[in-house]
Amino acid sequence: ANEAAAAEVPAVNHWVNSPARSVASVLPDSHRGCQLAAEHLLARGFRRFGYVGSSGDRSRKLHLAGFEPPITARGLTVSKFDAPLRCEANAKVFAAFYNHLKQWVARLIPPVALLVALEDIALYIVQTCHELNLRIPHDVGMMTCRENPTICLQTTPTLSSIEDDNVRIGFLAAERLDHLMLGQMEGPTEPIWVEPKAIRVRGSTDAFVSEDPLVSSATRYIAQHANQAITVEDVANAVDASPRTLQLRFARHVGRPVYSEINRMRLETVKRILIDSNIPLEEVARTNGFTDVSHLVKNFRKTTGTTPGEFRKNHRASK
Predict the structure, then answer these.
(1) What pTM was estimated for this model as a whole?
(2) Is the CB of residue 296 less than 8 Å from the CB of residue 290?
(3) What torsion do the CA atoms of 312, 315, 317, 318 make, to the nearest 10 degrees?
(4) Which of 206, 210, 240 is nearest to 224 (CA)?
(5) How far apart are CA 263 and CA 79, in angstroms?
(6) pLDDT in tens, 29-69
(7) pLDDT in tens, 103-114
(8) Distance CA 65, CA 209 (A)
(9) For 84, phi and psi rounded to 5 degrees?
(10) What φ, ψ does residue 261 adopt, rounded to 5°?
């Protein structure tokens, strides 16, 4: 940045952790993204939260500024874990990091939701949960602050994430650079913060958790069998309760009927498939508990206001 300034070469920064302060910047709005993440996790029923980041990362302040207020407004708190910015620097550093991480996760009281700044550290948390026999998402829900399909789609379960609008960031950065080149802007101004594109809901947060053991068992059963043609009676039988008792407990703790939760989980799975694959709609319907394509389309349109085909086309176009 200093060399560009000395050579009078216009420059625009889009890296939050850049040490350069005298460069115009277009940056992802991590504050807003983490606010949306908190709202998503609260809506999933979580009441205990954690944040994993690094004090050496400038994004940490932005993440917590967005993540904590919606949670603290409900009288809840966020436990924090400070990871080394280069946790894999050498074997000694990594061993210490992983040992501390495992101890921290072991002290958390399930169900708990974690927001993880770096997706590679999320992989170590997944491994730690497996070692501690903690189920994801029912004991530990997890989201990453950045969408990286190479990582997020390859874990078991897949990882929910905040997807930045990189196309918009690139367009605005190019526009600002154009203004600098034409002499229409002098020196840096306040950064342009670009709102995230979406919360990508995947397996790591795709469940409603509850302090009620009956509701928790029922939602776990639904998550495991939503791709089948299960009924409210099937769920009630699986958790050894009457359908009426189960409906009453869902109304009290979830705020919606049992069948609505079955349908919600099915459609969340369908959305992920539509975004991330080219699987034909006939197969999507058949493998996710719908009798046929028309049944899928009817339910999808009622919930989202659009058809599965339109949903897939719109998301592919935006990518």
Answers:
(1) 0.77
(2) yes
(3) 180
(4) 206
(5) 33
(6) 999 999 999 999 998 889 999 999 998 898 999 999 999 99
(7) 999 999 999 999
(8) 25
(9) -60, 140
(10) -70, -40
